[in-house]
Request: fold
Amino acid sequence: QVRLVESGGGLVQAGDSLRLSCAASLRTFSSYAMAWFRHPPGKEREFVATINWTGDSTYYVDSVKGRFTISRDNAKNTVYLQMNSLKPEDTAVYYCAADRSWALATIRQGYLEVWGQGTPVTVSS
Reply:
């Protein structure tokens, strides 16, 4: 069984920080590129960030550059999303996803093999 489980979401104030975690049950976690997506209320799902197999290459959507950091710990089979300087517009359900390939165009479109259940993040003004 392949499964991703997100955690760390919650209610915070604008300007606060929050770290999301995604625990993976993948047999070979280090063979998967990982990504974060979010689904804001009243909007469509959007790509947030992705990281390659070894963690030495990352890519972010423009709206979170300089504020969010994606990282991974292959020894713990976990990927993280550190979110700083949170804004109300960051409010969304956040999802992690995994795929054996790391092609930016494909990942940004949401074509990944495995998805988690999501964790909600609410940022109040």
